[in-house]
Amino acid sequence: MCVVEIIIETTKDQEIIDINKDVQNAVDALGVRDGLCHVFVQHTTAAITINENNDPNVGHDFIQGLEGLFPKNASYKHHCVDGNAHAHIKAAIVGPSETILVRDGALVLGRWQDIFLCEFDGPRSRIVNVEVLEKK
Ligand code: ZN
């Protein structure tokens, strides 16, 4: 098996959640020492990003900045379907995945970098797939 499925229960309408430990645990479970780790969220109103792990205000500012660009209460055609057009736009802009090197069993990230799940239409249960391709 080369894929681990992580289930994240989000608790807010919009938030970012540090999933670095969950991803590292998945890499550990897969037992790959060197390769590429692909993290992919299977939703159209959530995203994956890498951002600063030290100051939680960065996450707040990230959400606030996107809200300023794509406000929840703006006029969108998709709102007549399920009212979450802003979330689809934010998720598409940020993107559904990140790829991180794995070296000696550890994610290769900078000191201030962690992997985050971005929730734009919560709270919901989110599925994140972690796949590691082993270096030959
Ligand atoms: Zn929708």
Question: What does it look like?
Answer:
The protein is 26% helix and 38% strand. It has 3 helices and 8 strands, in the order ββαββααββββ. With 136 residues, the chain is α+β, with helices and mostly antiparallel strands. The radius of gyration is 16 Å and the shape is elongated. The mean pLDDT is 96. The protein has helices spanning 20-30, 56-69, 85-94, and strands at 3-9, 15-18, 35-41, 46-52, 97-103, 106-107, 113-119, 125-134. The structure holds zinc ion. Zinc ion is lined by residues 78, 81-82, 84, 88.
Task: Quickly describe the structure.
Helix content is about 25%, strand content about 40%. It contains three helices and eight strands, in the order E-E-H-E-E-H-H-E-E-E-E. The longest helix is centred in the middle third of the chain and has 14 residues, at about 55-70.
Number of helical stretches of at least 4 residues: 3
Which structural class do you get from the secondary structure elements? alpha+beta
Give the topology string: H per helix, E per strand. Answer: EEHEEHHEEEE
Binned, the helix content reads: 25-40%
- CATH class wording: Mainly Beta
Most strands sheet: 5 strands, antiparallel
Runs in which pLDDT lies below 50 for 5 or more consecutive residues are none
Mean pLDDT: 96
User: What CATH architecture do you see?
Assistant: Sandwich
List keywords for this structure.
3-stranded antiparallel beta sheet, 5-stranded antiparallel beta sheet, Jelly Rolls, alpha+beta, binds zinc ion, about 140 residues, 3 helices
Secondary-structure topology with pairs:
Blueprint: E1 3-9, E2 15-18, H1 20-30, E3 35-41, E4 46-52, H2 56-69, H3 85-94, E5 97-103, E6 106-107, E7 113-119, E8 125-134
Antiparallel strand pairs: 1-8, 2-7, 3-5, 3-8, 4-7, 5-6
Bound molecules: zinc ion.
